[in-house]
Amino acid sequence: MGKNKKYAALFSCLVLVVALGAGIAGSRSAKKEADEQRKANEAAVSQAEDYSQMVTANRNAGSGNKIDEQNNTKSNTGTDIQEEMKGSGQISNDPAEPENDGSQNQEETSGSTAENNDAVSDETAQLDMESEEFVLADSAGAKPVFNWPLEGDIVMDFSSDALVYDSTLDQYRTNDTICISAAKGTPVKASSDGTVESVSESDEEGNTVTIFHGNGWRTTYGQLDDNIAVSQGDIVKAGDVIGTVGTPSKYGVALGEHLSFEVSENETAIDPKVALAE
């Protein structure tokens, strides 16, 4: 019984020693593994820092190269521009040649502007002449050359001052026109070159055409038929047919078929016989 206890005690001690040895060995193994892991981590961190420094250095180097390239490009561009300007005569290396202070360019620009203005003025004047062909080419106030619009007897004469008898109204009055007898349908011609200012109709004069001849001169043709051959704005030449004699209005019926013809300067009636004779 005592021996069994002794063996059990020895066995327990042996087990304890073995367990203690195993624990010490395990502790040493764990510590070794921890040291190896720490060294591996430190190596990885160091490698990462070295890589980051290398990347930064490469970036800086690339940026510096780009800046140098840009500076070189600007320098070359400036040199090329100067050489081109020298070749064109805008910059001279000759010290004896005076520098261009811009006055020459200003004079050239002024001359060019003046020429352009003259060209625009000439073009504008040409357009004005084309749009108003009826305006006389003579000096201001020049009188147009008038022709008779048709042939016939005067059945009521011009009289702006003295009273003349109007057989239709059976009264005396002034008359700013001359009434020329002509059969219905007789062609009526423009007395001079001009532009049709208006085509109208009234109880007194029936169908009427007024032509502007420039410098304030106008001719008016009344008692026309409905078949007017022109419209407002038309340009006519002397002798162009503008219409025909029509049936007289109720204010001129006693005179028979006729043309009422008026000449005026600046809206003042002129004796057509005098105007045509001049």
Describe what you observe in this structure:
By secondary structure, the chain is an alpha+beta fold. Helix content is 44%, strand content 24%. The chain has three helices and twelve strands; from the N terminus they run H-H-E-E-E-E-E-E-E-E-E-E-E-E-H. The protein has helices at 2-88, 103-131, 272-277, and strands at 154-156, 159-166, 171-175, 178-181, 187-189, 194-202, 206-214, 217-224, 235-236, 241-244, 258-265, 268-270. Strand 11 and strand 12 form a beta hairpin. The longest helix has 87 residues, at 2-88. It is rod-shaped. Mean pLDDT is 73; it is low at 62-79, 84-103 and 124-139.
* SS-based class: alpha+beta
Order of helices and strands: HHEEEEEEEEEEEEH
- Measured as a percent range, the helix fraction is 40-55%
Q: What can be said about the biggest beta sheet?
A: 8 strands, antiparallel
Morphology: rod-shaped
Total helical elements: 3
N-to-C span: 180 Å
Mean pLDDT equals: 73
